[in-house]
Automatic annotation (TrEMBL):
UniProt cross-references to Gene3D superfamilies, sorted A to Z: P-loop containing nucleotide triphosphate hydrolases
Residues covered by the Helicase HerA central domain: 7-73
Presence of keyword Cell membrane: no
Cross-referenced SUPFAM superfamilies: P-loop containing nucleoside triphosphate hydrolases
Keyword rRNA-binding tagged: no
Name of the protein this chain belongs to: ATP-binding protein
Organism: Sphingomonas colocasiae
Domain of life the protein comes from: Bacteria
Sorted UniProt keywords: ATP-binding, Nucleotide-binding
Single GO MF descriptor: ATP binding
Amino acid sequence: MTIQVDIGTDTTGKGASIDLEELLATRLLVQGNSGSGKSHLLRRLLERSAEHVQQVIIDPEGDFVTLSGPYGHVVVEGADYSINEVVKFAARCREHRASVVLSLEGLDAEGQMRCAAAFLSGMFDAPREHWYPALVVVDEAQVFAPSGAVEVTEEVRRASLSAMTNLMCRGRKRGLAGIIATQRLAKLAKNVAAEASNFLMGRTFLDIDMARAADLLGMERRQADAIRDLQRGNFLALGPAISRRPVSIRIGPVETAARGTGPLLTPLPQVSAEDMRQTLLDGLDEPGPAPVTYVPPKPPPVEDVLHTIEVSTAPPPERPAAPAIDPGPVVAEALRALVEDPDSSSRSAALLFQDFQVRCRMMGVHRPPLDASAFARRLGAARAGVFEDMDEEWAPAIAVAHGLPDDMLGAYLRIARAARDGEPCPSDEELARVYGTTSLRRAQRVINYIEERQILVTRVDMSGKRSITIPALGWTTMPAAA
């Protein structure tokens, strides 16, 4: 089951969408000059995916705080809290899966970099049990990952760049999917931009930025002029979550708006020059009112903000309880989808476990039906072709293998299935695939390990064909080449 996030239409008028699951695994880079529609694009993506995934927005201008109303995002004003408090917010966000807008509007450039680095590091360093999938949107990413020297201390620059690099390079294993937006690719650190696999390129005019954008889109340099001709709100898109070939997309409308608006032309006052002069100069010699000292409001206590984050994800009390769903078929369907994914063999067990939990939630099972250890065993069984009846039909075979490491259960069940059905003995290559590797030697070591535990007996005949017996069950495979 996949979720397609509608972001607009292509040149033919057909709907254009982003595969949310693929986006979580491959990250996104958005580029375009000021006024090209980057913030509008991000807002559209955030609004359409808000109900499906946790969202964290690093917002240097405070443009996205309006998401807090209709979509329930918690707004944290970075200027009101210390670095240690910001780190606590980040950890609590991961624990409770709260969607958050970190507004940095009240800070200077160095303060924004320091606060964003602390927040991203707090999310990155969260405990493994809190590695839930989340979209992490960083607007004006060139501020936090500059390509060259900037007017801040070297310590702050390094900390901010390191946090952004961790987000884009290593965040995937922790469930963090980076979405970065920048006005100029030339100002963004290359090792940060290079980790994105999906691109949405808006209007830009400088040759160096057009050349880099064309390279990322796989276009020839002579085709780069097309980027200069894009209209506001139009983007060239490419990536596994969007399209395998560059396609022009017109971003659709949004439901919320930024607090600030762009300049709008309004009629000038119809006043004569003499009257205007009188208005401007009248009363300048009179004493003005006493100056008023502005006292900024006191920020809410840290405990109140942490409590808001905790309760933001709680369901409304009046919401009726959803009907109970049998997790058994859901687990089997989610495992089948994982095994059929051609990329699953190259992904770590921790990342597959997160993917499994996402699939279960999409099908209505919100509490994890399996822990990490049980998932490893069920994943191995699924790779062996056993998706259901683990506690019934396969209970005797599993009882024989009691004590085997979780990751070896799949290889054992593949042999057991062939032995029970009188099929040819699985090859080393097939057992390696079930074990989650491409190494034939590792597959052979797995067989040797299980045989040393007296669970299997291997026999090789004069023609070099191998058969394997499970003595406790009386099952034997047909001879076949190893």
